[in-house]
Design brief:
By secondary structure, this protein is an all-alpha fold. It has 7 helices and no strands.
């Protein structure tokens, strides 16, 4: 849970800072006034759909690793402008959503279920996930969503195996 962000975020000045805000806010989906993390996660379902439907697991793995480390740098930078774990920073939701569906068999039912399972773990934050937010800078911003994504992925994998009807 991020700290409250004023209705108007501090102005982003310069091309580097603009690009940082663009990527860090999930192509500005983090600016959505209501539930920006959920909005970003929802829009991330499009690349998830393309990656899982076509079984592009290596591409998904590279995206997860690359966006995670890039996200640490970006989130650290944007925390200096917007404060600790700002709600507008949603690159962590992108990574968490990608992790949720990593190596998960594709079906529309699985995408819908996975979205809700992922949002549950990201919002509820099990104690060890909540504790990880205390890490400094972008590490705390990113790690909690990685852990929530792993929990969502594991639960989704179990449910899919117990209810094979979901794979159709």
């Amino acid at each position: 849970m991020g700290t409250a962000v004023p209705h108007q975020a501090p102005q982003i000045k310069g091309p580097r800072r603009f690009f940082t805000a663009l990527v860090g806010s999930g192509l500005f989906t983090g600016y959505f006034p209501i539930a920006p993390a959920t909005v970003t996660s929802f829009f991330t379902l499009l690349p998830v759909y393309l990656l899982t439907r076509h079984r592009l697991w290596l591409g998904q793995a590279l995206a997860i690793v690359g966006l995670f480390f890039w996200g640490v740098v970006i989130a650290t930078d944007l925390e200096r402008v917007w404060g600790k774990d700002p709600k507008r920073v949603t690159i962590d939701e992108i990574v968490g959503t990608l992790i949720t569906f990593f190596l998960v068999p594709y079906s529309v039912k699985v995408l819908v279920l996975g979205f809700f399972v992922w949002r549950f773990f990201d919002i509820v934050k099990l104690p060890f996930i909540r504790k990880s937010q205390a890490l400094p800078g972008g590490w705390g911003v990113m790690i909690d969503d990685v852990l929530a994504g792993i929990c969502a992925n594991l639960l989704l994998q179990v449910v899919i195996r117990l209810l094979p009807v979901l794979r159709q």
